[in-house]
Specification:
Layout (H helix, E strand, L loop, with lengths): L1 E3 L11 E4 L2 E4 L5 H10 L11 H4 L4 H16 L24 H7 L12 H20 L4 E3 L21 H8 L4 E5 L6 H7 L5 E8 L19 E6 L5 H16 L5 E6 L16 H12 L5 E5 L5 H14 L1
Helix pairs in contact: 1-10, 3-4, 5-6, 6-7, 8-9, 9-10
Bound molecules: {5-[(3-aminopropyl)amino]pentyl}boronic acid (OKP) and zinc ion.
């Protein structure tokens, strides 16, 4: 399988994230990169498809903000990475916001997604990596886009969940075909759902930890399915058999949309040893999942999302890709 990666994605190097009342070392760190690159072998660098495919799904003001947020942070006299601390409650009227802190809260929904000096460049080249892999898939192959930071929590005008640009949504729309998007990261792909809801010719299905117990809490509940998206939340502790049964359901529903192309938001944080997640898939299970998905017979773009057990991450990713 052709694999795409851009070295500029490494420069995003958040030190900490804030949750449960304290700063913690960032789970989404560049040790993930070494683990995955060592396991997948040769990668190709992407060409630059420019801003147009990003602008097709993201808000102009948000993209502008991402590019200058860290500069504005420094200009305000701060050090380190930019993090929000105040957020507008849903439904607040739009305001012209000047202060960096006000803008950070306006364009983010959590405190785990710091913006550093290289975050924009890394996220930009992550999106370009996904678009390059989409190009390979247009030729009828499967392809893997090693995107980092991840993307599926980012919405049209917000970052969150370590995500800044929604690589899967960018590609689903750029494909310009009937597309099935399958999200098998441990966490619900709230940004992808928000961005793809109601889009003609696109279906989105997500298997994820029940938001009653797990991040991102406010999206992905079972009763939140309808139209062109399907949510299949699963309890903590879910192992292969129950996971596979839900996957069969999701694939059947996606197939009803007669897709020409499949985009997978792939997280290896469903692994039993993942430090921030609570499912129980083991390394060989990733090959079984891949074979299940490959059996639907669509050209497939695999976009990397989460996965934090660095000792096993590369193996889990390579096992998944090998299953195709
Ligand atoms: C990103 B992706 C850790 C706090 C939650 C946010 C999780 C973002 C996951 N207990 N941190 O979907 O893997
Ligand atoms: Zn995840």
């Amino acid at each position: 399988m052709r694999c795409f990666w851009d070295e500029r994605q490494r420069a995003h190097a958040p030190a900490v994230e804030f949750f449960n009342g304290a700063l913690h070392p960032a789970a989404e760190h560049d040790g993930r990169v070494d683990s995955i690159l060592a396991a997948i072998g040769r990668t190709e660098a992407p060409a630059d498809h420019g801003m147009a495919p990003l602008l097709a799904v993201h808000d102009t003001g948000y993209l502008d903000f991402l590019q200058r947020a860290h500069r504005d942070w420094l200009a305000a006299g701060r050090t380190g990475e930019a993090l929000p601390y105040a957020f507008p409650v849903v439904g607040r009227r739009p305001l012209r916001l000047g202060r960096i802190d006000a803008e950070l809260g306006r364009y983010a929904y959590d405190t785990t997604t710091p913006i550093g000096p290289a975050s924009w460049e890394a996220a930009y080249w992550g999106a370009q990596t996904a678009l390059a892999a989409l190009g390979a898939v247009r030729g009828g192959d499967h392809a893997f886009a090693f995107c980092r930071p991840p993307g599926h929590h980012a919405g049209a005008d917000y970052c969150g969940g370590y995500s800044y640009l929604n690589n899967a949504a960018i590609c689903a729309v750029a494909a310009g075909k009937r597309v099935a998007v399958l999200d098998i990261d441990y966490h619900h792909g709230n940004g992808t759902q928000d961005m793809l809801a109601g889009r003609e010719g696109i279906r989105f299905a997500s298997l994820h930890a029940d938001p009653a117990t797990d991040y991102p809490f406010y999206w992905g509940h079972a009763d939140e399915s309808g139209g062109n998206f399907l949510n299949l939340p699963l309890p903590r502790g879910t192992a292969f058999d129950a996971y596979d049964a839900a996957l069969v359901r999701a694939l059947g529903w996606l197939a009803e949309g007669s897709p020409e192309l499949l985009v997978i938001s792939f997280g290896a944080d469903t692994y039993v040893g993942d430090p921030i997640s609570h499912f129980a898939l083991d390394t060989p299970d990733y090959a079984r999942l891949a074979r299940r998905i490959a059996a639907i017979g669509l050209p497939t773009l695999i976009v990397m999302e989460g996965g934090y057990a660095v000792h096993a991450l590369g193996d889990n990713v390579a096992t998944f890709l090998g299953g195709f």
